[in-house]
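To: structure subgroup
Subject: Chain for Friday's discussion

All,

I'm putting the inputs and outputs inline so they're searchable in the archive.
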Amino acid sequence: MNDEQRVQLEAAAFRRLVSHLQNRTDVQNIDLMNLSGFCRNCLSKWYKEEADLKGLDIDKETAREIIYGMPYSDWKSKYQTEATPAQQQSFEENKPKDA
């Protein structure tokens, strides 16, 4: 496999991950954080940081819209639920240092 093929495969896998997360609106960000140490917001933050490194003008809200498939405020109002005390406790105990 050459570098171009690797990048194409990585991009395709990334698009599938984003699509999967957009379709799994039942999975809350706090659940993702508690299980994997990252969530949709992390992914959009990483997306923006990589755009910044490449000199591309993508703001935080645009990056979020790319990851969520809609404006973040719309996603929150449609799908986000209040975190339970157990979810919050797990997050506090296990959150990554940069969260």
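Points worth raising on Friday:
The CA atoms of residues 8 and 80 lie 32 Å apart.
The two ends are 35 Å apart (CA to CA).

D.
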